Each structure stands twice: as structure tokens, then as C-alpha cells.
Amino acid sequence: MNNYEGIFIIRHELNEEDVKKVFAAISDSVTKSGGAIKKEENWGKRQLVYPVKKAKEGYYYKLDFTAPPSAITTLEGGYKLNPDILRVMITKR
Asked: How confident is the model at residue 1 (pLDDT cuts 50, 70, 90)?
């Protein structure tokens, strides 16, 4: 299993409860794929440098986790299909 870091930008139109549900869904998908969460950080609502899908703000979320290398492609694909997630970047640590 490798160490990974994921940065997520969530739509700003969501209320706090929905944002927490999206964060939980992100974490659950990692554990379901055979990974383990090391650290979660909610960076809060921030202004985007340039519009992403016509949004000028978003909630930032950072996740440090371990997972098998084969699971990363599946995770990224699932995250990109979620309409509440504007951007995803997963890098190997």
C-alpha cells in the first residue's frame, strides 16, 4: 500500500451538513476500496483563483490516506462523477 494525498474542491452552494456528507462519502470510498485514512483536514470555504465549472468559491478538503495502487484510478473516476466535487487531485507521497 502506498501513501497518497488528495485535495478536493467542493461546491460552495452546499450547506454545512451537505458538505460534511460529501466529506464522509469521500472518506468512505477510500476505506471501501481497501485503504485507510491517516489524516483529514477541512480547509473551509475559499475564493478560487479562476472559475471552475462557473464557480468562484469552493470548500477545500485535504485527505491523507493509504491505498493499493490499483484503487486510485477507481477512486478518481468515482470522484469525478460526483456533481458536488468540482476538482480532485490525488498525488503519491
From this structure: confident
Amino acid 39: pLDDT: 96
Strand partners, 25: none
The dihedral sign for the CA sequence 27, 20, 73, 93:
negative
Q: Name the residue among 90, 83, 82 with its Cα closest to residue 63.
A: 90
Topology given in CATH for the domain delimited by 16-83: Alpha-Beta Plaits (3.30.70)
% of the chain residues with pLDDT over 70? 100
Domain boundaries, the chain: 16-83
Q: Compute the half-sphere exposure of residue 92: CA atoms within 13 Å on the CB side of its CA.
A: 9
